[in-house]
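Objective 1b. Sequence-to-structure analysis of DUF4968 domain-containing protein.
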Amino acid sequence: MAEDINNDEKQIIAETIVGETTEEVVQHLNNPVTDLKPIVKQYLTEVKGVKKEGNKFYFSDGNARVEVRVVSDEIIRVRLAPHGVFLDDFSYAVPVVDQRVTTFRLEETETHYAISTSTVTCKVSKADFLVSFADNTTGMVMSEDASPMHWEENVEFGGYYVFATKDCKSEENFFGLGDKSGNMNLRGRKFQNWNTDAYSFGWDQDPLYRTIPFYIGIHESASYGIFFDNTFRSYFDFGRENNDKTSFWADGGELQYYYIHGPHMMDVVKRYQTLTGTHKLPPKWALGYHQCRWSYYPESRVREVAEGFRSNQIPCDAIYLDIDYMDGYRCFTWNKKYFPDPKKMIKDLLNIGMKTVVMIDPGIKVDDNYWVFKEGKEKNFFCRRSDDYFMEGHVWPGRCQFPDFTNPAVREWFGGLYKELVELGVAGFWNDMNEPAVFGAGTFPNDVRHNYEGYRGSHRKAHNVYGMQMVRSTYDGLKKLMRNKRPFTITRAGYSGMQRYACVWTGDNVATWEHLKLGNIQCQRMSISGVPFCGTDIGGFSGEPDGELFTRWIQLGTFSPFMRAHSAGDTSVREPWSFGEPFTSINRKFIELRYRLMPYIYSVFWEHHRYGFPILRPLAMLEQENISNHFRQDEFTFGDKILVCPVLEQGATSRTVYLPKGQWYNFWTHELLNGENEYNIEAKLEDMPLFVRAGSVVPEYPVMQYVGEKPIDELWLNVYYADYEVNSFLFEDHGDTFAYEQDIYLEKKFSVRGDGKNLFIEQTIEGLYTPTYELYDYNVIGVPFKVSKIYVDDKEVTDFSFDDKKRLRFKSNKNFMNIKIFGV
Ligand code: GLC
């Protein structure tokens, strides 16, 4: 039939089918094996009544019910039960739904019900069941239904396809959704969430490895967020099918979403993290430079690479063993030919400050002589199909079965399997292929059954959380095995909340300039989607970068939360010295910079963990009121003090930089520039443009070849003069235990205030940790006056000088309370 109809006719048929988008109907028509039958979507009708139960309000149209739950003063959750009965209230993403609410009330008018908290009002219109959310202060409607929530029965699996359609304002832009390719602003595009092994993915390819069904909308300078907590295959349309509508829908489960109030994008992200959790503080060594390859083997090659770092004096904290360290790719075994004595090798590497990280995949080789398979089989821990056959598929080891990580008992078992590797001294674990990926088929068939925390479900429901539950098992297992030490785990797949268990890398990218640009956007996007500890395969996984591309990638990687170079096995060697000079020296300079800035980087991680701030902040977040910034995507701040402007064009020797509000110092030249302007900045290969916010205190450690190489005997404080007051902070602790949860840490706050003639620095210290150093060594940059006297806690400092870069240099004890620098 499809061939007999032209596109105009398809369009007409499409428009006559109730509730179906044109694109979907044209798809039906183009598929000759699908009968064209009208798809009947059912919509909520009118509100017949409301019932209150604590912080929950139940609205009904006589058949379907909607629950509106006041989660906090700024977060409201909405759920739909098409035939009145809600599903079990369980979520892998949100461990605890209710937060602190100061006050809320319900009001009824002729046309609607209104539930108000101290900041937000959620209205439900009586006549057509439309739900909206408005800001109490401005009265501005942030998000509102364009049509009532609707659904469609799923004849094959039971349950419903569920849909929400909201207004998309003419000037509205969208951000978030975690692991998406292409431009940062999501307006005008449609996306799908279905965790996918996307080898060599392209610009705009969708879906990729992870599912984060959370987006941020911005219009009229105000932001809000929607978190559609649904693990089934889900979809988002940001004004693509209809320019004035935003929709999200899923192939099953409940229509359940959280409205998260702003009005600032930062508020939205922080509040999203109160639902799904933040990343714990990683061990400090995890923030160093890491070297990976598929694969470094045999042992002699691993040693050679590790020693190469030390002989080239390029800092590095970890070397990775990809699948070839295993015996026939059997997880938790060693290939004894390549690695005859892993314990000794790991110890020797540790002696030169190099930690070992190994890969563990979910596919367990079907082999009755293999202990992991035997145990899993005996315990009945592997996934099964609907008719009870085992789920079998081919991955690296050949025929495999797969643990059902949605079963708590399976997670407990699998987490314990790391015991021997931990005893051998392995420091970190890398979970890959956990979308789950299966050669040929792509992933599991839909009918595979999962325990799903006892709530049961098919793979349709469990697919998107499989990887997250695998790395959860790894993280929890390691936490027990490593006693009080912080585990370091990496995952490829995940779902919202994955940040509680692991960091991520963006998967199998390609050694091209386009991928450098893409990786820059991807890490920023992950950061504002609640997954802050993210990095790309520096240099590109497949393909061959030249020295310039590799060096530009190292520069971007210096400011990626996770800094790891990785490459596929069929590519040329790729260590930071592989390209010769001048690249080796420039790579060294930037990797050293990462270590110099370690106290700043670590403090930014703490700020994320403790307060939910994203680590990378795109310009759209820094100045959401400036619409041009909704389209500027190649700069970001790391924390709130350092603006990073990576060079993403081949052959570039300068680039255009936009500086946000305030004043900024060029990190290299110390030139002071005014914000809210664009500049053309020199960016020779050795100089990626970096800026520091005036008024900042940026702490620095001496360069180390690895974290903890030497005790720190002096802390450098780079103070950037400003004519106004700016606060900075520094977090310090032991670096690899959970003692910080018992308040064993230090949080130092610095306030810097200049007035053109004088400069005042104040410090407050909180916490119970004692650092190893006694002194601060100051570099005050940009002092605009001639210095006459310096006092530290009213004691005069006579020993001060200006260095060749015009920086004021002096020292103080670490516990000072105030410093006064007076001009002549
Ligand atoms: C996958 C991973 C890649 C790894 C390879 C072999 O492609 O994404 O990082 O090197 O598998 O384990």
